Protein 1
Amino acid sequence: MQVYDLIQKTVRQKKLMKSEMQFLITNFTNNKIPDYMMSAWLMAVRCQGLSPEETADMTLAMRDSGEILDFSEIPGATVDKHSTGGIGDKTTLMIAPIVAACGGYVPKMSGRGLGFTGGTIDKLESIPGFSVNLSRQDFYRQIQKIGCAVIAQSGNLTPADKKIYALRNLTATVDSIPLISASIMSKKLALNADCILLDVKCGNGAFMKTRESALALAESMKSTAIAHGKKCSAVITDMNAPLGMAVGNALEVREAISILRCEIHNPLAELVIDLSGQMLALSGMGDLQECRCKALKALKSGKALTKFAEMIAAQGGDASVTDHPEKLPHSRASRMLFSDKSGYLASVHSEEIGLACLELGAGRTSANSQIDPGAGVVFLHQIGDEIQDGDVLCEIHADSDVLCEQAEKRICSAIQITEMPVPELQLIDCVI
Ligand code: URA
């Protein structure tokens, strides 16, 4: 088999056979295919696409390049969730304990933030003592005992994806639906939960900027999951405004705790209940309506909060933050941003807020940069709220007054207040 011929086939939109896809992925991972040939093939895919069968075959070859987890000892269906990422997305912090409090099993491997999007792992690490590195045995044991564990990606999971992703980053081939789908789904299939809920974000703060591309990615990932025997649903959710009120690691943990304590009920809380209900339904715990009610009950009864405290304690963290969120890290400086007019909060540009938070120190500009866990922005109003001239729009947190001042202009221009009333945000667009 010649790599040259495989590149030609993809350029001419002729389908690669399963064995050809396996050959390409395995030999590239084992350094037997040079980067320049793989780059040419990736660019051919970027321009010509792959069929659903080819995408599923590529995903499987990538999954099989490394370790595959085994939850067969867990006495029920395991359910994973994947969000394609956005600004202020802290849903895992609430969904994992809610689903576990209802009797589900949630094994979760999450990533760190890079660029303007935050990572669940950085959020959890802002909890004093919390360890995101569990051995496989401890990971399995915790899921069996508590029902949920959230850890960083570790071990020899999908080495093919690591190598291909690094090359895509250098060759302008990240932006391809079949390649994104294979990259994400290879990791999901290697984690190997029985059920997968896909939360595909759509909007200016997301990978997928248009509804059309979000739907195409969701369809591609779902068909791959189904082709490999997983139960799967996909939800398209809005990412034109930050999710919830807080953006920044410890600030987002604090917001998640407030929702778990039922101190606030906002569109984010609604989304969390809906997504938890979807996960419970996939796990076979009833129909969607029943499962949504179960999720709501776990939240209202405080069981989900207790479960979150159990998970924190099991992973070495200070579980008392659930009663005393003031123990979470704070930045040294803060500043309030005031509205200079009356009207209605019409939009908050999430990508701009993500970039402002990066400047404040809440995110990483490179894989090794340090983050300030207390940095970020907390909004005091939601989309649709009436605003009076002089109201505080948000609080800005960073290590110094200078950083707060510098970010203020960017944050200010990301917020739009209009004279006309605007409807409240609908976070869920559709379920596939
Ligand atoms: N996230 C991934 O894991 N892979 C991609 O290709 C894009 C986003």
Note: The radius of gyration is 22 Å.
Protein 2
Amino acid sequence: METKRSLIKKNWIAFCYTFRFCPTLLIYAILYMVASVVRSIASIHIISETLDLISQGADVKILFRSLLIYCIIMFVCLLFITLYNGYVVPRYRAIYEKKMQYFLFSKVKNIDMSAYDDPTFYDRFSRALNESIWTGFRIYNIFLNFIINVVSVLAIGTYIIVLDPWLILLIVLSSIINTFMIARNNKLWHQLFLTTEEERRYQRYVNRTFYQQKYAGEIKTTPISSLLINKYDDAVDCLEKKYNHMYKKLVLPQSIYLFSRNIISQAGSYIYLGYQLVKEKILVNSFGGMVAATIRFQNHFALLVDYFTGMLQQARYVDDFIWVIDYQPEVEKNVGEDVNEFNELVLNDIVFSYPESKVNNLNHLSMTIHKGEKIAIVGHNGSGKTTLMKLLLRFYKLQSGDILMNDMSYNNYNERSIRKQFSIVFQNFQIYALTIAENVLMRRVLSKEDEDRVLDALDKVGLKEKILSFPQGIYTQVTREFDMNGASFSGGERQRLAIARVFASNASIYILDEPTASLDPLAEERINKLVMSSSNDKTIIIIAHRLSTVVDADKIYLMKEGQITEEGTHQELMKQNRDYAEMFLTQKRLYEKQEDL
Ligand code: ADP
């Protein structure tokens, strides 16, 4: 009972949520409910009233007036019901979906970064996000119809009880059997849904590989497509077997359901009413009204059961829906003070580990970054360089220690305001199907000044000339996904484009997290040096793979296993002759060898 109650409560929450996005829908929903219930009751009432009037020998005029009133009521109700279903529902569904989509965008923007690292959370979140766009309105429809049928069943049930309590017992009994059978069917369907998830996921995977551009090259040049099609066939065979097995299991509950609904419920009640009429226990006019009431009651009860089991079936979606709207981030709260002007960053003995990590990914790390300082962070893969940047960007909470900006803890700042201080190019930066200018500014171009800013940034990364040779210049679309004339860039050019973002930004701190891997060493050196020589008030952090490209940094930090093990200028570190010096000399020898080849 508890679960049922909480199920209704959850549906109620989702139902009410619809009115948050579409408040005026409430008026239509109430009118729809009234029209539906009135229509049901009127159709029963008219039969008993007409039979009453005939048996009393009433005047034709009176009979006609009564029928006319009935027709007007029915017409108004049916007109409204038709308008509601044909116009109100589609219109509000579109409004709801649009508002829900924006709401979900804002939710996704505010998911904590740690959520992406937790596969169970992430799976549920992406499923809920995908489904929530339409789930909410579907729940609204189901729940509204559920309420309508509850009200109708209560109203008609009361009418029948007053006339003959035994009849209601018969109908309710058969309806309860129906409920169990429908529930059993639904359970079987749900089981089928769960046990076939893997095959359907595999089918989706194969579909994806066939239409995504990144697979096209290998699909054309290797026999992988036949292999994938074979696997697809296996999945289809497996699905077929599972479905056939389920159809067999469904035969019995389906037959009992039909028997109970058509034989026990309908035929039983007609036989009973006929018997009462023959025995003269009810009059002909009551008989007519009761037959009509029985039919209506059975229909409403069946619908009530359908909608209720529909609600049971939706339980998982409702849970996901409520879960997603209730999701409260730990980091992405958008509260706290704004950073005025960046002056200094102090990392004070910070300790951090990812949710599933068994070791500390950053281990008692301290450093101070002053305004205008040009620093480089180097170290082997996995030493924690990117993780450190993510913490500077306030993607995660620390386990212990603190990060202070201008002497105030990150905990007291609004995380969005912290991020505004930075312009970062990640290793796995993205290029978007937007114009070149938008890809550089990461927003719309608003003025001539913006255009100049884009051109200047492109000039710095060595792309200006090429881009100006395109007919649409900086307004050329990147990728051909939405524009046949879109520009395609090589790996190195994409990296330059991403780096141009830094030059075009207003941020105080620039971070380059090894975005130069696809560039040749000379180009990488040129770009790193260019970034390093940015104006004095810019603070620069470069994570570099090739140490020779950052020798001019004010300070170089070497990271190892989540800690800073060496720090100083290039000359100081070379003098220390420890890991940095060894790495530097090894790389130097390697590049010299490559150049000789
Ligand atoms: P670097 O940038 O120096 O190559 P990272 O900061 O990317 O190193 O990674 C540091 C450590 O943290 C590595 O052991 C890596 O496997 C681990 N790590 C990185 N990202 C995650 C994550 N999202 N979840 C769990 N562990 C991670």
Note: Residues 117, 354, 356-357, 361, 379, 381-387 surround adenosine-5'-diphosphate (CB under 6 Å).
